[in-house]
Amino acid sequence: MTRFEIFAALHVPGNPLILFNVWDAGSAQAAERAGALAIATGSASVSTAHGFSDAEELPLDLALANAERVVRATSLPVSIDFEGGYSTDPAQTAANVAALAATGAIGCNLEDQIVATHGTPGRTMHAIADQARRIAAIVRAAPDFFLNARTDTFLIARPDTHDDAMADAAIERGKAYADAGAHGFFVPGLADLRLLERVCSGVPLPVNFMAFPGAPDAKAVAATGVARISHGPFPHMAALKAFEDAARAAFA
């Protein structure tokens, strides 16, 4: 099996792949020592570690260089959080992802929110057809590369507004992204287990849940049919807090 096939096979509905998101070579090695089956970065963590804000403020060349260092540091398959692909244009997005694949990464996240650095005010999402074109271009440019299509449907909405209609809107996106060639479907911000199960049942792709402090536990999430649980920026946030607490104790 190729590394892509090995990584794809780890996505099992009801027995999800656990990804404890890393930000550099050292944290990737720590995750591997701890028993990780695969490595995934978190864009906010990588950006913060380099002195930048999230939303593609980290320059593309630094993002690619960091990805290559993470890949070299571990024997495990590596997926990179690549935000919006550093472009809104399908061809340029595909070229950027092909450059990412050339680092040795076996997959990436691609979000459907239009990243603010591209000049769109507020939190706006690509039209479904536009995002599907971007996904299709990436699949052509980077074969055997696990494209985890992220929808920000729930992330940009208040949790108390999450309902069946919103889940159905996400399912519509998930189906379109699957038809375009995506390999996974990421729904950060969704924590309602009934709606999560609705999405898992309605989208013909392995579904990725993002864990966060106060979220349902992994066993409950797995029971909805989720095939992947990632941890976003929270491991990095916890590591920084532990470092700061230790520093305060040292300086006291």
Can you put this structure into words, describing what you see?
Helix 2 (about 25-35) runs parallel beside helix 4 (about 60-75) and helix 6 packs parallel to helix 7 (about 165-180). The protein is built from 10 helices and 10 strands. The protein has an 8-stranded parallel beta sheet with strand order 1-10-9-8-7-4-3-2. A two-stranded antiparallel sheet has the order 5-6. The chain is globular and about 55 Å long. By secondary structure, the protein is of the alpha/beta class.
Task: Record the SSE blueprint.
Elements: H1 3-9, E1 17-19, H2 25-33, E2 39-40, H3 43-49, H4 60-73, E3 78-81, H5 90-101, E4 107-111, E5 113-114, E6 124-125, H6 128-141, E7 146-150, H7 164-180, E8 184-186, H8 193-202, E9 207-210, H9 218-222, E10 228-230, H10 234-251
Parallel strand pairs: 1-10, 2-3, 3-4, 4-7, 7-8, 8-9, 9-10
Antiparallel strand pairs: 5-6
